[in-house]
Design brief:
It contains ten helices and 20 strands. With 386 residues, it is of the alpha+beta class.
């Protein structure tokens, strides 16, 4: 990882099956587990926290069905999130957010942003908010003060922090930049935007629904030829008959994209590519971007993916972890076989609650002498069950 702010841990309480899950963060985390074990819930929880830091808490909760639909039934009465973020040359920032129902709506019950104080045992407080009593640390006054600007009680204090407050703003920007990609959400039907000509604009990564894929690839070719060639080499490894991508104009400021196959004299347009080919191109483009945010979430990257492509996909993940903390959810045992135990988090369900365990903390070394990691995790044996 580059020397920059990064997240050390996340603690989630009361979110669906994630009754009480505390999880240390690593550069690459691939979550595996049976259906209903909490993989997608973990990604949704992180996305909700990210949205809350960009002033979209109300919208995000509504999109998830409201707070009542997401609080763990019978085992929690509020949602709690806590993250720790390393700050270069400073003590870590600890952000705590508690949201509770208020009739059919919600209220922010507690929100704090603290930092260890080297001069004493009491953590330094950047933000302290208790049920509407909101205080920020005033730089000039050197104490916690109520805001003198209009404050929206439905949105987090972190999302409304003044930009001149350096450390809180650093956390807000880092957390809010998180990107969520779900391969199953990528629309690859015949009239989908990803298959049609696109308006060209400078962009540093494709969008979550395939938008800007053509713009990204064209912009990459024009501005970073070495990385574009790396992407082309990756495609060639996945599809040996591939020769090149081209971008013929179809109107002013609008480009199509073609795929040249050595077996045919005429190139294929994007709408002629198979679903699996298009998904791989989209994922490869995302993972090879150097402008990934601090946290990148990917749900089920193996959807419609031929098993032979999964080792290449893991290679791309390893490259991406140099630019982002990558969290992936998968059902694919085959994908797991290309990973190290230190990169795999096993999700299980015990008494209706999700648990998360790093594979390298499980007693599996003796099994790995005779079996691959995916085989061990599939076995109903001590230290190897899901």
């Amino acid at each position: 990882m580059e020397t920059r702010s990064k997240f050390d841990s996340i603690h989630i309480k009361g979110f669906r099956r994630l009754v009480d899950v505390e999880f240390p963060m690593r550069p690459l985390t691939v979550m595996v587990g049976v259906n209903g074990s909490g993989k997608t819930s973990f990604l949704n929880a992180w996305s909700l926290l990210s949205d809350s830091s960009s002033g979209r808490l109300s919208v995000a909760l509504s999109e998830l069905g409201g707070i009542a639909e997401n609080i763990t039934r019978d085992k929690a009465d509020c949602l709690i999130f806590e993250v720790s973020m390393t700050v270069p040359d400073h003590a870590p920032l600890i952000y705590h957010l508690s949201i509770e129902p208020q009739g059919p709506f919600y209220q922010i019950a507690e929100e704090t942003l603290t930092q260890e104080n080297v001069r004493g045992t009491t953590p330094f407080k950047h933000i302290e908010s208790i049920r509407g009593d909101i205080r920020y640390y005033g730089i000039e006054d050197r104490k916690l003060l109520r805001p003198n600007w209009e404050h929206d009680p439905r949105e987090t204090s972190l999302s409304q922090v003044p930009k001149l407050y350096k450390e809180p703003e650093n956390l807000r920007k880092t957390l809010s930049s998180s990107a969520f990609y779900s391969a199953s959400d990528l629309d690859v039907h015949s009239k989908a935007p990803v298959r049609l000509p696109q308006t060209v604009q400078p962009t540093t990564r494709p969008g979550p629904y395939g938008e800007d894929l053509v713009s990204f690839l064209y912009y990459l070719r024009e501005t970073d030829r070495d990385r574009f060639d790396l992407l082309s080499d990756t495609i060639s490894s996945a599809f040996p008959d591939f020769q090149r991508l081209d971008f013929p104009p179809v109107a002013a400021g609008v480009l199509a994209m073609t795929w040249k196959d050595k077996n045919f004299t005429k190139p294929m347009y994007v709408h002629q590519l198979s679903e699996g080919t298009l998904r791989f191109l989209w994922l490869a483009s995302i993972l090879l971007s150097t402008d990934l945010p601090a946290i990148t979430l990917i749900d089920e990257p193996d959807v419609s993916m031929h098993p032979a492509l999964l080792d290449l996909l893991v290679d791309l993940m390893h490259q991406a972890q140099n630019h982002t903390q990558l969290i992936v959810a998968t059902h694919s045992d085959r994908l797991i076989s290309f990973l190290k135990p230190s990169e795999v988090a096993v999700l299980d369900v015990e008494d209706g609650q999700s648990t998360m365990t790093w594979a390298d903390t499980m007693d599996i070394d003796h099994w790995l002498e005779d079996y691959s990691l995916d085989q061990v995790l599939a076995m109903n044996r001590p230290g190897g069950s899901r």
